[in-house]
């Protein structure tokens, strides 16, 4: 028996509890489906609604698996953040599995960045990259009694290091649909209040080069399923899971306008429409794309606007223009699609005037929703390399609501949190609180991080 698991305990993250928009672990379920299709018996420990690792310990005792595959959901953007609370849970789960005599394989960005921590906890192997196909090979060897994995690429082994890169999956249509039957769908439906949103992925990777964006799993490439294959999954979901809404987890859904149009056409042919939300870039939204997305049933598009300052966008190597955010927002709205923005504060060289430019852009275009974060240095990025010397012992947020400055920013953590709250209030009310902004401006000089401080203390 192979027990699949992940360490995303919702109860450990106050922000995610407050939002209560949980999604099943998509890549974990895909890996389980692939391994099961090869004849292995599988089970799932879905940490989402569990109270803690004691539930994992009980499941270990109940099913006595030979192998534990701790496969984090690489399609969930929160996984890339590698919060300390998730790392601590993952390491505790590995120790429990090791104590039960299980062989343990781990896959996820944090394990790839810090394999020694996972080996110290008892993991036998860290699987790099996408993980599904490599895990299948590992499981096959282990099931046959083989313990020497050095011939398999795509692994990090204790005391040995990496076995070399593994070829990424190019034929996504060949992968089985996720093993939804392993999940208690109704627990998710109840959490959503009856109107269930479900996750799906049409592609992997992103070809753009934003210097703060980590690509630990899928890399700087773009591999896409055929429109028909995606629509087949939607038709099956409509029949077997019955969601009210879909969340496409892709970094970019529909890089090619022709793909979007074929997708919309196939949805109509199969009568498989389900309203969906997705992510894209401002430079990709043309009149043709906006019309195609509307035809396909897009209800909401999240755009990585990041800043209202061109100076900051250029510093990020974003490859977009402030004017592009305006154009994309208006095109989508014209086609009846809700428009939401990701905003990033605190990027190096951002000054008070750049923050005001972001505020004013939000006021001008009035996106339907915004998500606000601060610059977060992730290993493997050019941004991380630039600020590495400023990082102290703490290099991760505790949970997703932390919003801590981990490097020497223009202002301290508490100041950025106040800006975040003010921007959210502005987006909700469509008004600028001039008095509150004036108070922030008056404090801006005194709130600048003192030069010796490497890690903000307001976390």
Structure description:
Helix content is 40%, strand content 14%. It has 18 helices and 15 strands. It is of the alpha/beta class and 459 residues long. A seven-stranded mixed beta sheet has the order 2-1-3-4-5-6-7, with helices on both faces. Strands 8-11-12-13-14-15 form a six-stranded parallel beta sheet. The longest helix has 17 residues, at 413-429. The chain has helices at residues 14-19, 26-37, 53-63, 77-81, 84-99, 109-113, 115-121, 132-143, 185-191, 227-240, 257-270, 287-296, 310-315, 322-334, 352-365, 382-387, 413-429, 434-443; strands spanning 2-5, 42-45, 67-71, 103-107, 125-127, 155-157, 161-162, 197-200, 203-204, 223-224, 245-248, 276-280, 298-306, 338-345, 369-374.
Unreliable spans are 450-459
Helicity level, as a percent range? Answer: 40-55%
Q: Which term fits the overall shape?
A: globular
Contiguous helical run count: 18
Strand tally is 15
Strand content: 5-15%
Radius of gyration: 22 Å
